[in-house]
Amino acid sequence: MPTSTDVARHPFLTSPGEPLEIAPDPVEAAIRFGAFTEATGIPAPWVLTSYLAAIPLPIYPAQWPEGRKRWDGVRADMMWHPLMWLPNRVANRYPITDEDGQFVVEDDDTWAVRTCWELLASGMYDQDTGTWVDVLATVGLSVDNPADLGRIEEWLDGTDDPVLDALDTTSHYENADDPDWAIHVAMDRLDGLRLVSWALAAEALFDALTDLSDMASDPEMDASKAIWTAKVLADLASSVFTSIPLNFPGHGDEAAWWASNAEKMATFAGTTDDVLAGPVEVMADRLILLSATLDPMVDEMVGAEEGEPALPAAV
Questions:
Q1: Distance of alpha carbon 19 from alpha carbon 24, whole angstroms
Q2: Is 37 helix (H, G, I), strand (E, B) or coil?
Q3: CA-to-CA separations, 18 to 24, 110, 116, 240, 259, in angstroms, rounded
Q4: Is residue 27 part of a domain?
Q5: With 0-12 CB in 10 A as exposed, 13-18 as middle and 19+ as buried, what is 34?
Q6: pTM reported for the whole predicted model
Q7: Residue 135 covered by a domain
Q8: Which residues on adjacent β-strands are paired with residue 9?
Q9: Is residue 252 within 8 Å of residue 204, measured between CB atoms?
């Protein structure tokens, strides 16, 4: 397993002490999505945002585009990052059994949680420092070296390279005693993580709406900006609450409620005060009610937990 003293490590998106599970909040998740696609060059359709992961994750295709060794547009100077070198077992989806006993492919959230645990257990991500292993440094290459960078660019464009073609991180992720430990942990933790994610998102979105209301006296806060901000927050809420069950106590289709309000904001006409005293206040009240439902459930779940699952060490 790589450690902070074995190889070079670099920060990227996360902060020291930050776990990989659960996005900090919906707004930060959106910001990180943009930062990730800009930094890596991976096209947005090939990047997954799961609110159960602190960072966006690249989606690996069944095969690379013709003549390419990775995604079209990927930047050579980001090829140091472990997410560019996920082994097949980690990058691909597991077949799992659903509640009806049918075999299905793990969904986005399950895959995201499993991948986060794999990255942590392998040492590719170090939570204490919030840094990532420089995979290229393990084979003596550096994106800061112009010659190496040119070599990586040529490889991405399809040129064979004995070092890069042989670069394989699989051994860092393997656990001989239980190769599939991470999928079991992900499935066991999924419902609880979703609950915590919804609760954190409700709190963060309420804070964002409160900040918007507090800016009513700001001369730069005109009606169009207030409407746009409220619509963005409603869109984010619809996205993060999509996984809330339709029969969730007292809330019905939470995602649809937020999507409907986002649509209303798209055609809303009125002053800044109209926005803040109307739709923004209604949305804030909705989040108060949602938090009143979620927070006791989270407290009960945390109180019932006997401890975190052991984190297996990679071989």
A1: 10
A2: helix
A3: 9, 20, 12, 20, 30
A4: yes
A5: exposed
A6: 0.89
A7: yes
A8: 133
A9: no
Which amino acid belongs to residue 89? R
| Coil, helix or strand at residue 42 | coil
For residues 52 and 108, what is the distance between their CA atoms, to the nearest angstrom? 9
Report the helix count and the strand count for the chain, using DSSP H and E.
Answer: 11, 7
As given in the structure block, the two tokens for residue 41 are 């060059």
Number of domains within the chain: 2
Strand partners, 132: 10, 125
- 142: in domain: yes
Regarding whether 163 and 48 lie in a shared domain, the answer is yes
Residue 252 lies in a domain: yes
What crossing angle do the helices spanning 181-214 and 281-304 adopt, rounded to 10°?
150
pLDDT digits over 87-143, tens only? 999 999 998 887 778 889 999 999 999 999 999 999 999 999 999 999 999 999 999
Given a contact cutoff of 8 angstroms between Cβ atoms, the answer to whether 79 and 156 are in contact is yes
Each residue of 159-170: pLDDT tens digit? 999 999 999 999
Structure tokens belonging to residue 213: 């209301």
Q: What residues make up the domain containing 226? A: 194-304
